[in-house]
Amino acid sequence: MNKRTMLHGLCAAALSLCTALPALAGPWPERPIRLIVPYPAGGLTDIVSRIVGDELGKALGTSVVVDNRPGAGGQIGLQALLQAPRDGYTVALVVPATMVTLPLTNANYKIRPLEQLDLITIAVDTFLTLVADRKLGVSTVQQFAEYARKNPGRLNYGTPGAGTSFHFNNVILAQKLGINTQHVPYAGEVQMLNDIAGGQLQYALVSNAGKTFVESGQVTALAVTSSQRVRSMPGVPTFKESGIDFISDGWVGYAAAKGTPQPVRARLHAAFVQALRAPAVSSKLAEMGYQVVANQPDQFRQIVHESSKRYSELLTTGAVKLD
């Protein structure tokens, strides 16, 4: 190799390195951040992201634009993230469905989260509420478990679909309680809750969608899966208070595309943590019943890994059936 060829190669390599790291060329950020929410506007994930996004913009000194990209179980939104430049100006919301259950249960789901995403932080832990048909005559988890054990195979529980995180969590709960019940998949939570209120379904783990049914007395709330009582339903005990070691896999987190420069990821993480811990944000989220987490990226990755392993085992053993 002559000197001219070597010099040309070194220049090309240097140019390639410079173009690969555009986010490090000057102050960051220099323009608005796009926060992709792969679900429709008005839902839980959208509301949380708009609360966090306003404060995130203040922490970064720029505006944060929430971009709703629903469809294909969240895949459309995450594909938009992966197609954007890896410069930190596009981040996306992720949840257990997009990070854990869909990669395990849906052959058409092409996103490989731990391979294609740089995780930033879990914003909040969400929770589920165990609700039951009032006609069962139970008011505690222990009474419910005793009733179910005396009637093996006779109680039906609902979920918003086979293979959802609701389904996995119900199976885990049944194992912990030592009960044998039957799964009935629904298209959504509202019809499921209506059937519990009407006596056609015996119980379910539900999201915040169940709050109005609980407050109106249409269903009985037995316990919440959070680590502490939630402000929105202070009269409902936790499973831990009820003597059951059960906390559901429920959270809302944020991620960038794999390959985002480390200094930019660090800046994003610090800004998200600052935003989440701001009193105005944490108070609003607490009113919704959600506890701020704001953990480290490696902790986030470990949670996803452990959930994936646990759910995979449930599929392998046949405890969770997808058909």
TrEMBL record:
Q: Where is the signal peptide?
A: 1-25
Keywords in alphabetical order, please: Signal
Asked if Signal is a keyword of the record, the answer is yes
Fetch the SUPFAM superfamilies from UniProt. Periplasmic binding protein-like II
Q: Which InterPro entries match?
A: BUG (IPR005064), Bug_dom1 (IPR042100)
For this protein, the record's Pfam families field holds: TctC (PF03401)
As for family, the record states: Belongs to the UPF0065 (bug) family.
Quote the PANTHER family the UniProt record gives.
Answer: BLR1237 PROTEIN, TRICARBOXYLATE-BINDING PROTEIN
Report the protein name in the record: ABC transporter substrate-binding protein
Per the UniProt record, the source organism is Comamonas testosteroni (strain DSM 14576 / KF-1) (Pseudomonas testosteroni)
